[in-house]
Amino acid sequence: MKKSILFFMIVMVISFLTPNLFLLDIMAANKGKSDYQNGSQDLTSNSNENVAEKGFDRKTDFPETIKLLLTEKNEVIELPFEDYIKGVLIGEVPITYELEALKAQAIVARTYTLNKMKTNPNVHPNADMCDDINCCQAYKTKEYAFASWDDEEENEKWRKLETAVESTSDRVITYQGSLIAAFFHANSGGQTENAKYVWGGEDIPYLQSVAGNEGDIYQDTKSFTKAEFAELIQGAVSDYEKKDYPIEIVDYTGSGRVYHLKIGETTLKATDLRRMLGIRSTNFRVEKDENGNITFYTIGYGHGVGMSQEGANQMALEGATCEEIIKHYYLGVEC
Ligand SMILES: [Zn+2]
User: How far is the CA of 135 from the centre of ligand 1 (A)?
Assistant: First the structure.
């Protein structure tokens, strides 16, 4: 008994000390897998201290153009900076969202981009940003938008998108005078997440857990057979299929999401398990039936850090301005 407790504690300590190694393996295994959010595990280099040191000057720090890596074609294009922000909106939010929610998304996308260019300039050697949401944020062209809208209202929709970007073109989000790491996600499931529980590192004062404000919390169910589950988690637990271990939840984060799980002798972060399985969020309960089939019941969609896109739209529907939306999701900021 004592031995197993000791072993458990050692595993816990090791997994706390080596989060990045753990994460890198899993990220590599899941490269290209898509979900609905921005950003990657680059919070350490995006840390508040780092950002604060560099400061932000509106006059000199707005580039005219940006170099964008289109990951599918492996091609780098250069385009006007604000055209890029329009493309991010096409890729990231439905045009049917309220104008104030689209404006909030434009300010968030602009801030996220400028901050990433400043603090992580070497992520892609020949480009400032890419269109992979697990690394940077989505980007789609005007042609793509018109093809997917494909109706009589497409010109009206385009004007709405242009208004959202052009009416906010000089606006960014700052905390104590410096650009913030403006993470966002599709739907928090009711409560956003403190960034440190997702990416580790220091506590970031403006990326705390706040009410998600969504109308719909996106409930979802995903089931796996024992063999499917065993294969997906093989990098972390190699003998799952043979041993058929129970899946135990060890603890929760302050927002109610699962923080750590224990499978056999292995303790792993729920954020890592989420990547391996492709489930929508770490806000889940899990059930296993007598045949070993495993079902995850999730709410929300995405990592849960920063602005909830669905919550932003709900706030706008209820009359909030883009500034009120931003100040709700990022604490103590100016925009
Ligand atoms: Zn990227």
Answer: 4
